[in-house]
Design a protein that fits this description.
The chain is an alpha+beta fold and 581 residues long. It folds into 5 domains: 106 residues, Zinc finger, CHC2-typedomain (DNA Primase, Chain A, Alpha-Beta Complex), CATH 3.90.580; 121 residues, DNA primase, catalytic core, N-terminal domain (DNA primase DNAg catalytic core, N-terminal domain), CATH 3.90.980; 131 residues, Dna Topoisomerase Vi A Subunit, Chain: A, domain 2, CATH 3.40.1360.10; 53 residues; 127 residues, DNAb Helicase, Chain A (Orthogonal Bundle). It contains 25 helices and 16 strands. The strands form 4 sheets. A 5-stranded antiparallel sheet has the order 1-2-3-4-5. Strand 9 and strand 10 form a beta hairpin. Helix 14 packs across helix 15, helix 20 packs parallel to helix 21 and helix 20 packs across helix 24. The longest helix is centred in the C-terminal third of the chain and has 27 residues. The relative contact order is 0.07.
């Protein structure tokens, strides 16, 4: 298998793959679906619910959850549900339909095969070498025993040892000059073109993806030294902001416990597992990212961040809170556990044991309590100035929360602490009140009529070829209009050959993803007799009429001083009359 990067998989291959797949078949490999009218439904696999709101459209080839907003194509579903990266998901689906993923590169395939064998194999070879070296180093074995680790736990996490010395990996890789050793971050090339091992005299912790493949390493010094932890650099296999150490080993326990503990170090994860706390993961030398939050909330009901009580730990906790706010889900919990300053999870559980540690986890501080504590820290709320500062500090945090119930309850608490009403706080924060029209228990909720721009976007998604009929200078304002413009630009670049599912996939992860998702969610309510062509023609007529009205007003404002302006004015008036007749 050749290594591939997301950016070099051709669009036409993505289209061919999606054309061969049936999203219903793909989803049913993981989730049982039931027929419901023209669509299929199930309880959403990405959040807990009692009644199904997860809808799969076979005709339109996308899924949408009306509960949590999850949305996408067959590729997106496999990425989200199986935890695969973009390229891995495409390769997995391509294998299922007998396709070989092409690789567009500026060099010949034969040459590429010579210089780039499977990078996963390179990492696996290095892992085996480090594990063998651990057996040969009594000093490294003694260090792990001193830290309370058993051979069983060391084997479970694939722990090894990188010996001291500059080119020890030459034993495992006879061609030490091979480019893949640099590509995987195992070897460093100096400015003088000298090569040497990145990891030397360190306990080695393999970083494993959700498929069990080694993608990077974390190396810890045995004695005192800096840096304490040394991680693999960013490579084609490893992106630290998207990975979590120990997740592969912890997945089963996380799902069973419906809780995940996020800690700061590799040794914390391993030591906790040694003492029976098997649901811990660690960030990889970086702050908790939004991707980490989303990934974990798909796995579990409750995230507990466990940070050291020092300044660095407090800073990491606050950063995790800021990154979590936009992704909070009503019904799911995020908590914070701060250990005494002199302890980390490893030292705490070794000194006090499993029961005491689990009790601390049970008593972890809820996110709401932590947020309110921090925004009010150091303020005298008996004074107007103190209450004013509280309102200012809380504003960017409260307005970032998308979960309705969570946002509402926090706004109520901040309003009470500030001495203002909830309505006054929402007016200050420019939060529009949600007005719900009363209806009887048997009355079906009326759906708002989509805007013209939303309808236009839906028409372009449903039948991309219609974009050929749109004027080259078409430009309107608003999220739906901007998304339609972006879709139109992509369609023009590809000569209007893209299919609807391919468009959906191409806009995953862009600023227009949510707008397209909302537009497609509305499309699930189209009846069998919905005429896309007629709808599009009517919209074009309205847009043209509106444009003509603007042009008429502009000419009138100029005063029609020239013959050219008067001629254009008469032409536009005539066009308006013809349209009305």
């Amino acid at each position: 298998m050749k290594r591939r990067c997301a950016g070099v998989i051709p669009k036409n291959f993505i289209q061919d793959l999606l054309n061969r797949l049936d999203i219903v078949d793909v989803v049913e490999r993981y989730v049982p679906l039931k027929k419901a009218g023209a669509n299929y439904v199930a309880c959403c696999p990405f959040h807990n619910e009692k009644s199904p709101s997860f809808t799969v459209s076979q005709t339109k080839q996308f899924y949408h959850c009306f509960g949590c907003g999850a949305h996408g194509t067959a590729i997106s579903f496999v990425m989200e549900h199986a935890g695969l990266g973009y390229v891995d998901a495409i390769e997995e689906l391509a294998r299922s339909v007998g396709l070989e993923v092409p690789n567009e590169r500026p060099i010949a395939a034969e040459a590429y095969q010579k210089i780039a064998p499977d990078l996963y194999e390179v990492m696996q070879t290095a892992t085996g070498y480090y594990r063998e070296q651990l057996k040969l180093s009594q000093r490294a074995v003694d260090y792990l025993k001193q830290r309370g680790l058993s051979g069983e736990i060391a084997a479970k996490f694939g722990i090894g040892y990188a010996p001291d010395g500059w080119q020890n990996l030459a034993v495992a890789f006879p061609d030490y000059q091979d480019a893949t050793l640099s590509e995987t971050g195992l070897v460093i090339t100096s400015e003088e073109a000298k090569r040497y091992d990145r990891f030397r005299d360190r306990i080695m912790f393999p970083i494993v993806n959700v498929r069990g493949q080694v993608i990077g390493f974390g190396g810890r010094v045995l004695d005192k030294g800096e840096p304490k932890y040394l991680n693999s650099p960013e490579t084609p296999l490893f992106e630290k902001g998207r990975e979590l150490y120990g997740l592969f080993q912890a997945q089963k326990a996380i799902r069973a416990k419906q809780r995940v503990l996020v800690v700061e170090g590799y040794m914390d994860v391993v030591a906790l597992a040694q003492h029976g706390v098997e649901y811990a993961v660690a960030t990889l030398g970086t702050a908790t990212t939004p991707y980490h939050i989303q990934k974990l909330l798909r796995l579990t009901e409750h995230i507990v961040f466990c940070f050291d009580g020092d300044k660095a730990g407090q800073k990491a906790a606050w950063r995790a809170l800021e990154n979590a706010l936009p992704y909070l889900q009503d019904g799911k919990r995020i908590s914070y556990l701060f250990l005494p300053v002199e302890h980390d999870p490893d030292s705490f559980i070794r000194e006090f044991g499993n029961i005491a540690f689990e009790q601390c986890v049970e008593e972890a501080m809820p996110l709401s309590t932590y947020l309110l504590r921090e925004v009010g820290a150091g303020l005298d709320l008996r004074t107007q100035e103190g209450r004013n500062q509280l309102l200012q500090r809380a504003k960017p945090l409260l307005t970032a929360i998308a979960a309705p119930a969570t946002a509402l309850l926090l706004r109520k608490e901040v309003a009470a602490l500030s001495g203002v009403s909830q309505a006054e706080l929402e007016a200050l924060y420019e939060i529009k009140p949600v007005v719900r029209a009363p209806r009887s228990a048997f009355q079906k909720a009326a759906r708002p009529t989509p805007s013209a721009h939303r309808l236009l976007l839906q028409c372009l998604i449903a039948q991309p070829q219609l974009g050929q009929q749109m004027p080259g200078e078409w430009q309107e304002q608003g999220a739906d209009a901007e998304a339609a413009s972006a879709v139109l630009m992509v369609l023009r670049e590809t000569d209007f050959t893209l299919s609807s599912p391919t468009l959906t996939q191409l806009f995953q992860g862009t600023i227009h993803e949510k707008t397209l998702a909302l537009a497609q969610a509305d499309m699930l309510n189209w009846g069998e007799n919905f005429d896309v062509n007629a709808e599009f023609a009517g919209l074009m007529g309205k847009f043209n009429e509106g444009q003509h009205r603007q042009q008429l007003k502009s000419l009138e404002a100029k005063g029609l001083k020239t013959e050219s302006e008067r001629e254009q004015y008469r032409f536009l008036q005539n066009q308006m009359r013809l349209r009305k007749s």
